[in-house]
Amino acid sequence: MYPEIEKLFAISDVSKSEAARLLGITYNTFLLKLRGKYEFTLDEGFGLKKILKTDLSLEKLFEYVA
């Protein structure tokens, strides 16, 4: 799980399904990536950072907690 991403979704007006659509991936794939089953691509990382309108570094945004 990515706690920083979860925190940002909690305060964002963008839903996870909308973020998946904007990234060009299915909602199911997006959820699997959030759970750590698959890795995000670099482009998806930058896209998610833009969608969530955050100044966090990619390293901080994608700190994984098992």
Provide an overview of this structure.
- By secondary structure, the protein is mainly α.
- The protein has a single domain, classed as 434 Repressor (Amino-terminal Domain) (Orthogonal Bundle).
- It is 59% helix and 0% strand.
- The model has no long low-confidence stretch (mean pLDDT 97).
Topology:
Blueprint: H1 3-11, H2 16-23, H3 27-34, H4 42-51, H5 58-61
Helix pairs in contact: 2-3
| Rg, nearest Å | 11 Å
Secondary structure tally: strands: 0
Shape, principal axes of CA atoms: globular
Overall structural class, as computed from helix and strand content, comes to: mainly alpha
How many domains would you count in the coordinates? 1
Our estimate of the beta-strand percent is under 5%
Main beta sheet: none
CATH class: Mainly Alpha
